[in-house]
Design a protein that fits this description.
alpha/beta; Rossmann fold; Multidrug-efflux Transporter Regulator, Chain: A, Domain 2; Serine Threonine Protein Phosphatase 5, Tetratricopeptide repeat; 4 domains; 4-stranded parallel β-sheet; 3-stranded antiparallel β-sheet; about 10% strand
């Protein structure tokens, strides 16, 4: 198939019988089949001997609920083995062949945790947990704000879903291995799978050793000191967290560092235990009173317990320690917005945009404040700015609707 960008041929798929497999990152299957017809091809919802092209979607992996490659992909490979000429293209290569550079860029666009949360119906907490566990790694960070590759996150989500559905890691690994001749960088999902499959044995490393997040057990290079008498032994049994009382945390004694307590707090948050997490973070802050990361996580834990004012106070601690901590400014704005305190909310979002003018969710939330302040022209401008960074998520759809509404009736 020639590149229409070179030959300017709107019917570049003339004579092609095209089928799709896997979830597309750039559009729905319905939109893609329409695109096939517009470029002169024939859409095929099944693979047969007349199929000439199979396009593999790049959101996640083309694996069925049993962990095996999709039936369309398996059937295509069988037909290829029988001598039928069927080409297989990744979604981005197919879009490039059609000259659709904008859609191709969507496949490799970078997203913040909040954007991914909306786009993939994931919680921001899941995304942050996966980052801490090393399952996903930001492509870049701007003032601590991580930007992730869309495919990396969707890969983890798909693998996680398969494991939850009862597919064994060995079955998933076999399915992934069968794709290695078709999909580049198969090592990344295999590494992600290994981490997900042994999640209960996953260890965090810090300066003082290793922590197992599922059990809370510490793996240190030293043994905690033995109690010198029964009174001390009884006291050691009554520390803040006690395994005997059902807590997931095992406290090794006074030798825990601030980093260890911080990791423990993160683990407790991951396990939906914000009250215990608050205590862990507060102990960590005693040794590191100006650490913005600890204050940020403590603010999150306080918010989860319904203590909005306490969370606001901690987010202020964060930006006092690091004025450029973008997510803290945005969280401050959101909490003030939740309290219907529009002026401090607007101030927080404005500071975030002053620091990083291309910060997508700061544009989104500041637009929301402007609407409530009846400054709709400013809101429309920010929605248009947001659409530069996101064209397909729920927020993007809502931004288009808002722009259409307020440009038509700007005084509402």
């Amino acid at each position: 198939m020639t590149n229409p960008a070179k030959e300017n041929n709107p019917r570049v798929l003339e004579g092609e019988h095209v089928s799709l497999t896997g979830t597309l990152a750039s559009m729905t299957h319905e939109a893609a089949y329409k695109l096939v017809e517009e470029h002169g091809g024939t859409s095929m919802h099944h693979v047969s001997k007349v199929t000439t092209l199979l396009v593999i979607g790049e959101e996640g992996w083309p694996l069925d609920p049993d962990g095996n490659p999709s039936q369309k992909l398996l059937h295509t490979q069988e037909l290829q083995g029988d001598g039928i000429d069927i080409r297989i293209l990744k979604e981005s290569d197919w879009l490039n062949a059609l000259g659709l550079n904008d859609q191709q860029q969507d496949v490799h666009r970078l997203y913040t945790p909040a954007m991914l949360s909306q786009l993939l119906n994931l919680s921001v907490n899941d995304i942050r947990r996966w980052e801490r566990q090393g399952l996903i790694k930001p492509v870049k960070k701007i003032y601590r704000l991580p930007y992730f590759d869309f495919q990396q996150v969707t890969s983890v989500r798909r693998l996680h879903e398969l494991l939850l559905e009862g597919v064994t890691s060995e079955e998933i690994k076999a399915g992934l291995q069968s794709l290695k001749d078709l999909v580049s960088d198969i090592e990344q999902p295999l590494a992600q799978l290994d981490l997900l499959a042994c999640d209960s044995h996953l260890l965090f490393r810090d300066n003082n050793g290793l922590i197992q997040p599922a059990s809370g057990q510490r793996f240190l290079d030293f043994d905690p000191p033995a109690a010198s008498n029964q009174e001390e032994a009884d006291e050691s049994d009554s520390v803040l967290f006690k395994e005997a009382e059902g807590s997931e945390t095992v406290h090794p004694g006074s030798q825990w560092s601030a980093d260890e307590w911080f990791h423990e707090g993160c683990r407790l948050l991951d396990n939906n235990k914000p009250v215990d997490a608050i205590e862990a973070f507060r102990i960590a802050i005693m040794d590191k009173p100006s650490d913005p990361e600890i204050h940020f996580c403590l603010a999150d834990a306080l918010y989860r317990t319904g203590n909005i004012n306490g969370a606001i106070e901690r987010y202020h601690n964060v930006v006092e320690s690091d004025h450029h901590y973008l997510e803290a400014w945005t969280q401050l704005g959101c909490l003030y917005l939740e309290k219907e305190e529009l002026n401090p909310a607007s101030d927080a979002f404005r500071i975030a945009l002053d620091i990083h003018p291309e910060y997508p969710e700061a544009c989104w939330y500041q637009a929301e404040v402007f609407v409530q302040l009846n400054q709709v022209e400013e809101a429309v401008s920010l929605w248009k700015q947001y659409l530069v960074y996101d064209q397909k998520g729920p927020w993007a759809e809502q931004a288009h609707q808002n722009i259409a509404k307020y440009e038509t009736t700007p005084n509402q």
